[in-house]
Amino acid sequence: MNFQEKWRKLLLPLRYGGSGVDFKKLDPARSPFLQDRDRIIYSSSFRRLARKTQVHPLVRNDHIHTRLSHSLEVSSVGRSLGAMAGYFLRRRDELPEYAAPEFPGQILEAACLAHDIGNPPFGHAGEFAIRDWFGDPANHTYVNALEETYQSDFRCFDGNAQGFRVVNVVENNRDQGGFRLTYPTLASMVKYPWDSWQSRTRSGKCKFNYYQAEAGIFEEVFCALGLKTRRGDFARHPLSLLAEAADDTCYRIVDMEDARELDIITLADILKVVEPLAPSLRL
Fold it and tell me: Model's pTM, two decimal places?
């Protein structure tokens, strides 16, 4: 299989819960991936990110990043990275005939908007609180009746897996659930293409991207995009690596603004960190 054939699958604008793709009706001005972006932006789950701080919990300073402002910044970086990738693929003649070079950027914009949509309040401390509650023997009644793999979902609660559940099940639950996002957008959100049980047995860490309840959805999406390996596990979508890069860029650089705003670090500290990227910056 050549690269164009691989990208033909990886960018295939199938929509979860949809009925296939009519390539003759693909409108670059209103592509399926732009529709993904809009479905996320206008959702209540996305708006709720405004009430969750990004790094520093329990602050009274309203200039601090929230999960919503962080997600908007990540989507901006992701769109730029995706656009560069799209035009790079076009120059190499690796884009499929139906795909515009803007498609990777649009996919990443949508995926990055939703990348934190399942995170609880108080950042990663919220994840630890939920895990501790379900790990407390006094609360075992709630999970002991479940199969062991399902118990692991509760005791290893992760915002990434909760995000996959939100976009596929929780939102629009009166209409059988989910935003009905395209497969490339869903796959580009996935940083850890395995479940909680696999995560615990392989690495002992609570980092995974789908619960047992959504395992069927996950497998359908990743198989359709050609991401199931010969070993039977799943590979990451190439664009998910750019989504992670966009997140890391904002987390490691832009979010230093918050530490400066809270007088945790100084401007000199920031300049020292970014000097390798921009040597001309001086106090």
Answer: 0.89
